[in-house]
Amino acid sequence: MRRRSRVRLGWWGTAVAAIAGSIALAGPAPSKPSATEREHWIGTWATAAQRPVPSHPDTFRNQTLRLIARTSAGGKRVRVRISNMFGDQPLLIAAAHVARRAAGAAIDPKSDRKLTFRGQASATIAAHATATSDPVDLDVPALSDLAISLFLPDTTVATTAHVLAKQTSYVSPETGDATAAADLPVEKTITTWPFLTGVDVAASPRGAAIVAFGSSLTDGDGSTKDTSHRWPDVLAERLLQADPKAEIGVLNEGIIGNRLLSDFESPRQAGGPFGDVFQKLGPALGQSGLARFERDVLEQPGVKYVILALGVNDILFPGAFILASESVTAESIIDGNRRLAARARAKGIRVIGTTIPPFEGATFRNPTILFFTPDKEDVRQKVNAWIRSGSGFDAVIDFDEAVRDPDRPARLLPAFDSGDHVHPNDAGYVATGKVIPLALFEPSAK
Fold this sequence. Notes:
Layout: E1 22-25, H1 35-38, E2 41-46, E3 59-60, E4 63-70, E5 75-83, E6 91-93, E7 95-103, E8 106-107, E9 113-114, E10 122-125, E11 130-132, E12 136-140, E13 145-152, E14 156-157, E15 161-162, E16 169-171, E17 188-190, E18 193-194, E19 196-202, E20 208-214, H2 216-219, H3 231-242, E21 248-254, H4 275-281, H5 289-298, E22 303-309, H6 312-316, H7 330-346, E23 350-354, E24 363-364, E25 369-370, H8 374-389, E26 395-397, H9 399-403, E27 404-405, E28 408-412, H10 426-434
Parallel strand pairs: 1-10, 20-21, 20-22, 22-23, 23-26
Antiparallel strand pairs: 2-19, 3-14, 4-13, 4-16, 5-11, 5-12, 5-19, 6-10, 7-8, 7-9, 7-13, 15-18, 16-17, 24-25, 27-28
Helix pairs in contact: 3-10, 5-7, 7-8
């Protein structure tokens, strides 16, 4: 008998030249798996690759990035994944290190490990490609901060990044390689994750990863920076509290403004009263859920579960950021969810659906944009009714019920509202994370 339960989600949120001392990373993997490839790897941290906001991409030169990533599962061996997915030129990583963070930009020097790529100290990653470092032995505690340091010697535009990190990371002055510095000298801080898309740990055969696949409500928009209050963070904490020996990674693949059905790189043009705002942001809002599902879910190491939380922006954007003629039906969102579920099940991944939270009064500031209409609410209700039926998923989480105002169900409970009437605050994300039944991730539930 299919098990059911309840939760919630959201919206806003080449050829390679040979370089001395580095190795070009592209092309098929070796036909015979190495010992490392035979290890069972699970993601402990991940983020979705995006294009930058076109008006102000980060640029680095002769600088070290110290990027902070909070783990979910722990392990004794670790590797790092770096993406040049949206770059049109090769990306040179001249040096890379991983360590446990002490505080700020400082690391525990005893934990510092130099990373290599196919045995080389540096790597050139082809345009539109990704690279995974060789594994290193390192005690990685669950729910701890790692510092991944990357030295970029050339002028490098962060053409691939994650825009809404909600986490402070650090950039050195233009003084050369500081990847091994115990206390990185800091020229500036950033709240994006350039190039870094994953951290994996070696696990026992029972280890598994959960992918939270959504938009800004999964990405944590509305939560407090540097506090790890996104609902996937809350889920990771609860899993560890329930079983300190659990080997379950929780990977956040949310993107602000992301839509299930429509690709921001498609020929469709921005429209509506505030189409110019959308035009400025559009490329950073990601490929559609249907387009990025392979990369951001199916290819994640050790993935056994996916929590689907997309669709709210498909409903909200028409008539504001895009033309009203692009309005979607409940049937089209349901069909999109069915397609994702079928692709996941074909890979043996358990599929968990989530209801769409309320958005009455939803606004975007500077300029102020109102998104809510009764017709959009009708679509949300029809989609949620289908999700709650359980017919499309292995389980259901009712995010809507977790955060709505019982006296006015079309809106967020005021105590959970970050202020824009669509994104929860810290308390709202905690409520969302706590409504997820942990029994969904027990071996017997597979």
